[in-house]
C-alpha cells in the first residue's frame, strides 16, 4: 500500500522473472515495501479466484510471500466489465489490492487490446479504472508508460487514471515505442506528480544509487519502483531503502549465497532453475558489473554455476 506521507520501495512485476519463488526470495531481503505480481491477462472471459490462487499464491497467505513481503495482484485487459469481474475474483481469493497494467509494451499483448495500447484511448483507460474501483473494496492503482509514442501523453492518461479512482499511479518513464531503449524522461514523472492529487511511483532506469538520487531530484517523488536493477545489482534495493529511511535487513554482497538462496525457493527442476540462474547473471552482466558471465553461460548444471561464481562480490551501487 502506498501512503502519501510515507516513502516506499516497490518490486516491479517482470514477466517470466518475478514469479512466486523470486518474489519470496527477494522478499527475504527486507528492502521492499511490497511487490507486484506478474500480470494476469483478462481476455475472452473474466478470471476466476482459482486462477489467482495458482498464479499469485500469496493470496492464500494473507497477501504476503512466505518471507513476509506484501504482494499486490496485477491484471491486464481492455474490457471494463471483465476486468471488474476479475478484480472481484482476485479479492475473493485474498488479494489486498489490485494494480491495472497499462504499460506492457509486448506486441502480442498490445495486439489483443491490453497493456500500453490503452494509452492511445484515455477515455477507455479511465472507464477501466472506474469499473474496477467500483467493483472492489480494496485499493486500486494503475501502472502507466508515458504514452504510446508521445511522452507528453502522460499528462492526460495520468489525469484519467486518477479521475477513474486510482489510489496511486506508477509511471515508467518511457513510451511504448521506446520499449526499454534510452532515454528515460523522469522530468515527465515530476510534472505529473506536481499535478495529480495522489502518490506517484517513479520507475525506469534506476540501476545504481546515483541513478536513484538523480531520479529523486528530478521527480520529487517519495515512492520508487525497481525492476531490472534489482537483479542487475542486488545490493541496490538495500541501498535505496536506507536512503529512503526504510527498514532493511543487512544485505548479502556475494553472488554465491545470493544464487543459492534463490535455488532453495525453486521447484527442483534442474533445467528450469539453471535457465533462471543464467538469465539472472546475463542481466547482471549486461546492466551491472558482473564480468564472469561468458565463462559461465555454457554451464550444464546449477552446481557449476554456484561453483563458478565463487567468492565474487556484488559491487556497491
What sequence of helices (H) and strands (E) makes up the elements?
EHEEHEHEHHEHEHEHEHHHHHH
Give the CATH class of the largest domain.
Answer: Alpha Beta
Sum up the overall morphology in one term: globular
The total number of structural domains is 2
- Helix tally equals 14
Structural class: alpha/beta
Mean pLDDT comes to 95
Query: What low-confidence regions span 5 or more consecutive residues with pLDDT below 50?
Result: none
- What do we call the CATH homologous superfamily of the largest domain? Aldolase class I
Largest beta sheet: what is the strand line-up?
Answer: 1-2-4-5-6-7-8-9
Give the N-terminus to C-terminus distance in angstroms: 27 Å
The value of Rg in angstroms is 19 Å
CATH topology of the largest domain: TIM Barrel
Helix % is: 40-55%
Query: How many strands?
Result: 9
What summary fits the major beta sheet?
8 strands, parallel, barrel
| CATH architecture annotation name of the largest domain | Alpha-Beta Barrel
The fraction of residues in strands falls at 5-15%
Please tell me about this protein's structure.
The chain is an alpha/beta fold. It has two domains: 8-244, TIM Barrel (Alpha-Beta Barrel), CATH 3.20.20; 255-309, no CATH class. The protein has 14 helices and nine strands. It has an eight-stranded parallel beta barrel with strand order 1-2-4-5-6-7-8-9, surrounded by six helices. Helix 5 (122-135) packs parallel to helix 6 (154-163). The longest helix has 18 residues, at 270-287. The mean pLDDT is 95.
